[in-house]
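Following up on my earlier thread - several people asked me to post the actual chain instead of describing it. Fair enough. Here it is, all 498 residues.
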Amino acid sequence: MSESPLITPLLQQYQVELQTKLNECFENNEVKGILHLIDQLGQDIKDEPQLQDLLNLQLLRKLMKHLSSTNPQQVRSSIIILDAIMQRKIIANRLLHQRGAERTMVDLANSLLNLQQQLRHTSLEFHIDELLIGLQVKYVDKKQSDLSVLKQALKQFQDNNSLFIKQLQILLSSCESIIDQYYLFGSHLQELIYEYLLMIRQMEEKQQVNFLTQLLGIYERYILDVQYTIQDMQQRTYYIKIEKQMILHQISNMYKSCAQLLNMILVLPEEIGLQKRTYLIIKVLYKYIPGLRIALMGPLQLVMRNLSLFLHKDAQEYKEITIFLYQLIHSSDYDDKFKQSLLEDEDLAYLRENKYFSVKALSYVDESQSVPSLRNLNIQAAFPCYVIIQAASIYSYSFMVDKPNSLIFWSFRTLDYDVSFGLFKLQTIEDLGIIDYLNEKNGVKSLIKLQRIESHKQPIIGVTVISNPGLYRIIFDNSYSYLRSKQLFYSIHLLETK
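Reply from S.P.:
Thanks for posting it. Predicted structure:
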């Protein structure tokens, strides 16, 4: 069969019509014409391969721009059109297999999550929910083979007991977005994690603590790490809007996924390090998932008992725990029976008797939400992204900075071998095609020159101020290694001034 010509008459017709309908849509707030055209495309695209040049990611990005419009009608039109496009399976599949689709889908998900809270209880809520669900569902089939790798790792547990944690981290890191991580964690991974915990339960307590600590680290890093706010020496405040805050409360079975691990830790009261971390996890669940507060009564009381009995008596943590206990007792979330239980529990006596157990607790600002200074910046080294850099190759991450004096934060590590790292400012979009970053030319300027980093020995964390808005690129360079590929775990965040 001969290939279709690059530009066919049908494609030319649709190019003109699509542009016309889009203009009508955003000028006259009329979406019927464009929706009818999308229906036509859904029928004709089967026999017209070149229509992918028309239905490309540029179209999605154009629609995404209107999601942030101050015109509510343009926002409404964009949501309806995006929903119509993604519901057409053939169209969606073509878009999702184009180069750059992953980044666009993540950006789209983040834009929708921002809108979701603003448009709750409006007629657009259904369209947004459908779009977000669609972005999740498309991901499930792609991950089935990875789940089989995890199952195989469980079978090999006796011979290689670190393999499951390693494969679980790789699976979560390779997700295209945080939504996908939550979707997997709240459903498909539950059974496998439960089986893993059953294996751990058969071990001696010292071994249990080691493996529970590793698994708890994954929960903290990928699921429950929700807020960063910092301040520099000029008192500028920066923040990262973590979408986890906005979607955590929507995962109805999130507690079921966490409870299996938390229950195993709570019966090890003398392991204070684990108890303190478990307490913080339960607090996050309490704060961001109000529907779980009744289910959290038992775990809350038990973890406070453990800390009250075994935490060192002059520990600073007692202040925060005591204040939280007082707030719980005076909260409208719980009935009198539970509050009375907290007041009468003998194991909580030390908390109730110290000076922080007073009415002042009701006006206390959680110190965990205070704003640290840039000088003491210590964002946890979390690695929600994973990539294999092939031998003699580079991997790059490009981003736009819109506001002066923004911050770029990065953390990364590699398995087994080092990698080169650098940060560059590009002058134009065309500079994205430049390969030679060792020499500053064609307007490319290095903020951090390429240098080999022993990131296989310890996680690397860095932050720098971006004074001028523009296009920037982070490079992970493996071009010097002709034989070895590198496994890279990384996290990159842009922090903008409020």
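The CA atoms of residues 345 and 488 lie 49 Å apart. That should answer part of your original question.
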